[in-house]
Amino acid sequence: xxxxxxxxxxxxxxxxxxxxxxxxxxxxxxxxxxxxxxxxxxxxxxxxxxxxxxxxxxxxxxxxxxxxxxxxxxxxxxxxxxxxxxxxxxxxxxxxxxxxxxxxxxxxxxxxxxxxxxxxxxxxxxxxxxxxxxxxxxxxxxxxxxxxxxxxxxxxxxxxxxxxxxxxxxxxxxxxxxxxxxxxxxxxxxxxxxxxxxxxxxxxxxxxxxxxxxxxxxxxxxxxxxxxxxxxxxxxxxxxxxxxxxxxxxxxx
Length: 253
Known about the structure:
This protein has 253 residues and is mainly α. It has helices at residues 2-18, 33-59, 68-89, 97-126, 130-158, 168-176, 212-230, and strands at 181-191, 197-205, 234-241.
């Protein structure tokens, strides 16, 4: 429950920080604060699961006496609180890494509470003390994969990997389908924070299309293409005449 409280507090604080406006020093504002909060929650979950697993293994040889009445009461109380929190966070966790971190904290505890309730009942009915230790191992094994998945997603954002489901080659094909476009290179697409993808590219166009009206229409078409097909509204295009292509040093895709 303490880890849940810490996780939710971190998520709320990060959401507040992320809402602060951009500045000259931080042109994207503080939106990455939510990603850093998700990183903190992922690391907390991994540490908790490792500690629980290590302690459970240590107790296999000498299981301690368990006070099942206190154990059962605490587990039921925790399950009710975690279920309420889970219902509040469930809808938003698919759209935000930050909320997902808090959601996984609560989900891990809810699964843990269920395992503890079952273990307490088993001990009360059979006296099988190892049920507590087995429940602990199961809790650790349930938390760790979810924490690792969250950590992997956070690292992808921090390393500015392409968003999930977005293929650079597919974007290239869509851009090349726009009239007057002959080539596209130096494509970059990354994520500032959950739900905020950013795109940039150098677009080579026919020389005659780069008059004022033609460039304006091209930019509108390219922005519409990216926005409609890839849900990307923050796009930067560098338009280059075909005659200038020999002066361009392609650094990336």
